[in-house]
Amino acid sequence: MSRRLLISNFILFQLGWLACVLGGANQLAIAGSGAALVIIGIHLWQAPNRLLEVRLLLVALGIGIAFESILTLSQISQYASGVVFEGFAPHWMVLLWGLFATTLNVSMRWIKGLSLPLLALLGAVLAPLSYLAGQRLGGVVFPDTLLALLIIATAWAVLFPLLVAVAKRSDGYATSQSTTNPNH
Questions:
Q1: d(CA 162, CA 159)
Q2: Parent domain of 126
Q3: How many domains does the chain have?
Q4: How far is C-alpha 140 from the geometric centre of its chain's CA atoms?
Q5: What percent of the chain has pLDDT over 90?
Q6: pTM of the model
Q7: What is the C-alpha separation between 43 and 30, in angstroms, rounded?
Q8: How far is Cα 90 from Cα 87, in angstroms, rounded to an integer?
Q9: Is there a domain that residue 177 lies in?
Q10: What is the rounded CA–CA span in Å between residue 120 and residue 41?
Q11: Burial label, 176 (beta-carbon count in 10 A; 0-12, 13-18, 19+)
Q12: For 78, phi and psi rounded to 5 degrees?
């Protein structure tokens, strides 16, 4: 896998994350979701095996809509914009899960070699930090921040290893030795 693909995947994820969170915080949720969809589209276009990547993305989006909607329905998290159906997670928040999935077989490919306990620890530590950053930028409100972060940490200790396992089985970049022909 080329260094250029790894770097561009990482940068596009970061830009997509910022677009979604800042869009959600500033009543521009559609713009953030649009950016996320473009980035996901680029990811799929570059994938040598798009079907496997689509499978991973669908699993991640399914988990994302379920998990985020549980947080929203239970009023653990609240959002100012992007909510299509009352009580459900906003579209931009769900698309963050798809964006994250685009990294699992590319720039974060290295994590697939880590042990299950280490993956659980990474999920439990890093995910709450991401949500906390989203709160600081105004994308999400946690009425009880400590409770929200504890729930997120606990859930991501399970969800992160699960997503990595799905990525191992649905690696649309596994056959990629170079990116000179993304339609391989």
A1: 5
A2: 3-169
A3: 1
A4: 15
A5: 91
A6: 0.93
A7: 20
A8: 9
A9: no
A10: 29
A11: buried
A12: -135, 145
